[in-house]
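Reviewer 2 asked us to include a model.

Predict the structure of this chain.
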Amino acid sequence: RDVQKININPFKGNFLLDTMPLRETLKTGGWINFDRVNSAEAAVDLRITAMEVATGRLRVFGNSADAYPGKMERIPLTLDHIIASCSIPIVYPATELDGQSHWDGGTVANTPLSPAIDAGAEEIVVVLMTPWDDDPDPEDDPTGKLTPGNLLHAAGAAFEWALLASFQADLKMFRRINELVNLRLENARLQAANRVLEARLAGREIHLPDLDGDGIPDILQGAARHLPEPVIIAPKRPLPVEQIIQYKHDRHEYVYNLGYEDARRAWQAAGRVAEGWATP
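Predicted model (structure tokens):
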């Protein structure tokens, strides 16, 4: 009751659940201090995405300037931006921003990596709601119970797999860009070695500053930088959308514990120190 309520007559609207209770909870419960979020003292570079319903355009809103300017709109973030970012089509109503209706940004970009890169991220952690294993273990679904059994389940599964596909495309682009960056960096190293060799053959000494110590002179490196592979945290089994939107205490604890174990597993697989587990 603090998050959503059933739309009594869904045929009069285009959504099943109303988010007005969530709006009131966030507004009156002191959950978000927007003055702090939008201040120069904000400790986090926050990015929020939403999709413009009329055009399908992904919009990125932020509370700070990008390190590498992209398409992010730097504006004071509000409760409307938060609600818009979780306005799942059909499940929740669209949210109005700048006079236009908006849905959850995940509709077109489930886990957009570009805003994080543009913001200057040096490490990226992705949290998915859909299994990520390329070769799922049949033992995880021995009876086939995860196969959609009704229309709601089928719609939810289709939506989740569509979201996953958008992330897969984004990750593929991320890896291709990293490959190009690696080629550019290697070319810069060769240029540096060639300049030093030419100078020495001419009887001169040349100094090419390398402030970050990566072996590439700053004058040749430019803005090119290699980013490590994102750490991907994902469940072992699909989480039906109708379970995700059940905001009950026991359900919350169950999903929280699943997420905690999934995060530990992903963290360990990435070679990091995971609480309670030995580093591989």
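Strands lie at 5-6, 17-18, 47-52, 58-62, 73-74, 95-97, 100-104, 125-127, 231-233. The chain is about 40% helix and 10% strand. We have added this to the supplementary material.
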